[in-house]
Each structure stands twice: as structure tokens, then as C-alpha cells.
Amino acid sequence: MIAAVTVSLLAAAAFAFALGRVQLVPVARGAMQATTAGLGALTNSELDDDAKEIAVRRAGFTLIGSAFGLFWRIGLALLAASAPIFLADVAGLVPRDAVFVMMLRWDFLLIVTALAIVLYEILRRLQVHRDVVKSPEGDTKNRYSGTDQIVHMLAFSSPVVLRTASALEDRLVRRLPRDPETRPIFITSLARGGTTAVLNALNDAPEIAAHTYRDMPFVTAPTLWDKVAGGKKRGVERHQRAHGDGLEIDLDTPEAFEEVIWKMFWPEKFEGNTIALWDKDDRKPKAEQFLGRQMAKVVHARQGAADRPRYCSKNNGNIARIPFLLETFPECQIVVPMRRPECHAASLLRQHENFLHLQSEDDFIRRYMADIGHFEFGRIHKPIGFDGFDPARFDPASGDYWLHYWTQAFREVWKHRDRCRFVLQDDLRATPDDTMRAVCEELRITAGPIQFEDHFRTTPDVASKELFSDALLAEAEDVYAELRSAV
Question: Left if phi > 0, otherwise alpha if psi is -120 to 50, otherwise beta: which for 244?
Fold first, then answer.
């Protein structure tokens, strides 16, 4: 009995050791990457048919090679596992039939599986520790596995997929609300303006319902997808988001996924080198009905305890469509966080450089950002075409480009100052509780015992003015002074 158990454990250890030595996992990962690359090419609207054919053919050859590599590696590992069994048999220690019977027992399989899980977890934690030591500035890695990437590509392969997912949810999920959200809250500004922190703070209120990472990638069917994907059993370890700004996220963190629908129904706005502005004449009844229904679905998916739940979105793209929102949702409230221009522009420049690096290292990050409509930074940067903004006037690698962009963006916002609630970054840092409670009161939502100080930095917001030309900086400061007077 003891001899059979010992030889069985040696065989299992030999099998695992051999798999590690022959690099089975990297080869399997390569096969998954080849599959992902082929599927990505087929569903990439940026490629023509010839480019898709070449990419799929290349991925197919790679997959064939990977399959052969997996075959001989697994065979070699099985050979290694059989060595201690047959050696023990030849030596007369224990018959090989007794070892095979032992290895097929349920209790042996259970123990070996448990030991393997424990060993894997120990090794994983050691690797995480090494990664943290190597990267003290924060985690900016792509956490999507190969399978996750394939599911994402399927979801975003065509607008038809997301529309179909929405229709399936309508049919399969009971008690979905039929009335659209009539009092939505829209948080918008240029990226890096503080919209995420404000959304996180408001999301603590019981009335607020927002998109979360749990909705990805089938954002148009939040309730159905959550059920299919495992519901509350599904989770990820909290980690810093790719922006490297210290904000941690998990599946229940609110995020900006509403832009997917604007891309779906107004594709013409995203053509060309800039994103066009929306105005009152851009209304589309079917699109508005879908958007309103989506807001109601998000409210239902969050299933808060509040008697008067309200949809809340953080969407930087909405800064391009304020008059449209006011016309389409007359009861909506718009919150615009604002930073001083030199601080905001400097942060925009840093993030642009950050995403240039990330997207050059991992093309899936580039595709992910494009699919969800986040064109703010990096290789896919596509600015909003604000009146007076000339994207060719400055290089995006310069501070003046982003300061010029900031000035024209907030000149556009100034036109609607009577319907927007401005929130200064300086106030959020200096007096977060008083500032956010005033915002909640104006929005008519319950602040209750929320600790608003937990959501905002307490250090002063500063940046060097040497990044910008004097004339542009003076122009931006004039715009900021005007907006500040409306707070």
C-alpha cells in the first residue's frame, strides 16, 4: 500500500516536472494567442479582406505547429511518468497494475489535485510578489486571458452581436423594467478631469446605478451576461488600472461603457480624424429608445436597495453632446469636474505617453480601448472636434497640444454653464466632504454616512507651467476664470 502510494506520487511528480521542463504552458499559450490573433483579424473592421486572409493563414500555420508541439510534449511527460512505475515493477518493489489501480482511486486523485492546487497557489503568490518588487510604480499589465480576449472579440466583432445580446436579455430575463430612466446623471469632462473619482464617490449612494466592469464585454445585456458568467461567484483580485494613477478596480468598480452605444448608433460621428459634436438636430428615435432602455437595464442589474434608483454615467465623450443630452433627457443633471488648465493638460500629456507605451507593447489594449470608445490617448487618439480646435496646430507629444485642446473644450462647455454643475478639483482635494455633500444635495441623492474623503487626493494639484507657451496658458486661464465664476 505504502509502496504503491509512493510510486504513484513519484509518477505524478515526474509528469508535472516533465511538463514544466518541456515548456508546455508557453506552447499552449502560443496556441491560444494564435487562435486569438486569427479571430481578431476576422473581426477587425480596420483590415481589408486580403489582410484578413494573410493574418488568418499565418495564425493557422502557427496553430498547427503549436498543436504538434503540444502532442510531443505531452507524450514525453507521459513517458516520464511511466518511468518510476516500470522501474518499481522491474525492481520487484510494487507491481505496475497495483500502481495504476492506486492512481485511479478517487481519494488519490483528490489528494493529488489538492496538493497541485496548493503548490500552484504558492508559486503564483511568489510570482506576484516578484512582480510587485520589480514594478513598484503599479500594475499596468493586461489582465485579460486568451479566453477573455476571444470572448471580447466575439462581443465586439459587430454591432449586431451587442444588439442581439440586448434582444436576448429582453426575452430571457424576467421582470426587466419597461420604462426608460428619466432622471439620469451624466458626469463628464475631458479625461483626467476627476470624473472617475466623482463617479466612485457618488456610487456609494444607495440610489446610484452605474455600469461596472462586471458588464464587460456584453455591456448591452448586463443582467443576462452576469448570470451567464457566474454572477457574484465571478470575481477578480483588486488591482491598479492601466492608467497607473493609483486607482484600484475589480468587477464591481463603476466604469464608462456607455460610449459603446453612442458608437453603435452614431458611427458617422466617429469617422475621420476627429469625433464630431452632437447637437439638437442629431436625434434618432430608435437610438434614444435603446439608450433609455439600456439605462433602465443598468438600474435593474445593480438592484440597489433604494426606492428611487437612478442611472449615473461617467462618460468623457458626453462633453461632445451636452446640448443633445439636455434636449433628449430634459430632466437629466450634468456634473462637470474641472481642474486648473496647466494641471489638466499636463496629466493628459502623461497619459498619452503612457498609453503610447502600453498599446505598442500589447495590441489587445489598443483594440480594447477602441472597442469601448476610449479614443483619448495613445496610438488610437482621436480628439473631439470642438469649435476652434485645430489638431494639426501642435504635436500631441507637446504640452501645448493638450492645453489648446483643453481651452476649446471648455469654451464649448461654457455655452451650457446654466445647465451644468461644475465641481473644482481644488475643492474636492481641500474639502471633499463639504463639496460632495453639496453636489449630492443638488442632485437630490442621499449622501448619508459616505466617507467622501476616501475617494479624493488630499495633496494640492500642481503642475509645471513651463510645459506651455505663455500665450496659450493665459488664454486657458481666462477660460478657467470664467468657468470658476459659475461654480
Answer: left
